[in-house]
Specification:
Layout (H helix, E strand, L loop, with lengths): L18 E6 L4 E6 L3 E6 H6 L1 H19 L7 E2 L4 H7 L10 H15 L7 E4 H7 L5 H13 L3 E6 L4 E6 L1 H11 L7 E5 L7 H13 L3 E3 L8 H12 L3 E5 L5 H12 L3 E7 L16 E4 L2 H15 L5
Parallel strand pairs: 3-4, 8-9, 8-10, 10-11, 11-12
Antiparallel strand pairs: 1-2, 2-3, 5-7, 6-7
Length: 316
């Protein structure tokens, strides 16, 4: 296959002027620049042997690649034997297919990035919005915009004889998008920064129980020594969190690394630690923050629920 034979994007099917550029690489493949999917690399073998697979997961790969393009111009390198690994490595970026709010967050983040003032109207091709929301097709995208309109987040409608979408953020959407822009998830995720071994299982379960009781979704990634892949997943979840619960017990470096990342994004944090026979030794960088001391699991549930009710606005 040569460059002239590639007439459509392998991920989204775009053709014509939307398929901006196709160039050969030094290996057996191509660099493709698509108006909808961004810039990515793909081997000739992948195009030929993975056509059905790309049709199935192309919208996911397109969404992942767009996000990578926005992070220091990174991009996917697609090979026939690497597609499943890519999905696994970047699963932290992909919204849950059953969770409308996660897909809506992606859209709101994009709309806020593209607008410079409140009420500014944005118009673009329908196909451009699809990968941003990780939507499978235009019907799902329309449903997401309808949902946002119902929640008073945006106003929207079709333009250019139904080929484009025109939209603008309403007050609630603008405020929610600003929270997301700062790295604070607009919805229900709560990240738990805590070290793990057999002695902490009950503690983690208790935190999850309280978080769920108050209407949030608890996210905890076990492990004290992180691989790069797990670090990326943890940081991705923190970016999308409403707030972070930091258990300082054990003074683990991985816990304070996660807390520091959340602090840099201006995400609210609630510090806790287990009562010890000796006076608790605070980590140097967190010593000036209030840390709620708990004696056992039941005491933890009481003080944590109280702290969340005081510090965090409840989910609407």
């Amino acid at each position: 296959m040569n460059v002239s034979n590639i007439t459509k994007c392998p991920l989204c099917g775009a053709n014509g002027s939307d398929l901006r550029e196709v160039t050969s690489t030094h290996v057996d493949g191509y660099t493709i620049r698509c108006f909808h999917c961004g810039t990515f690399a793909i081997t000739d073998e992948c195009i030929r042997s993975c056509e059905e697979k790309l049709e199935e997961i192309g919208y996911i790969l397109s969404g992942i690649n767009l996000e990578l393009n926005s992070i220091n111009n990174q991009y996917l390198e697609l090979k026939s034997d690497s597609l499943e690994k890519i999905l696994k490595d970047y699963e932290y970026l992909v919204p849950n297919s059953d969770n409308l709010e996660e897909k809506v967050e992606k859209l709101l983040k994009f709309l806020r990035k593209e607008t410079t003032y409140f009420t500014q109207k944005l118009s673009s091709k329908i196909e451009r919005f699809i990968p941003i929301a990780y939507a499978q097709n235009s019907n799902e995208l329309r449903g997401l915009f309808d949902w946002m309109k119902e929640k008073n987040l945006v106003e929207w409608g079709y333009t250019n004889q139904g080929k484009d979408i025109g939209t603008s953020l309403l007050h609630d959407g603008w405020e929610l998008a600003n929270k997301i822009k700062k790295g604070r998830g607009g919805f229900d995720k709560v990240f738990i920064a805590a070290w793990s071994d057999q002695s902490t299982t009950e503690i983690i379960d208790a935190i999850k129980e309280v978080v769920k009781k108050l209407g949030f979704q608890a996210i905890w990634i076990p492990g004290d020594f992180f691989s790069q892949q797990i670090v990326d997943k943890a940081l991705g979840e923190i970016r999308q969190s409403r707030f972070v619960i930091v258990d300082q017990t054990g003074l683990r470096q991985s816990v304070f690394f996660e807390a520091g990342f959340a602090y840099g994004l201006d995400i609210d944090m609630i510090y806790i630690h287990k009562k010890q026979e000796e006076k608790f030794k605070y980590e140097f960088y967190t010593g000036h923050y209030q840390s709620h001391e708990y004696e056992d699991v039941e005491h933890l549930k009481i003080i944590l629920e109280s702290a969340i009710n005081v510090r965090i606005p409840m989910k609407k």
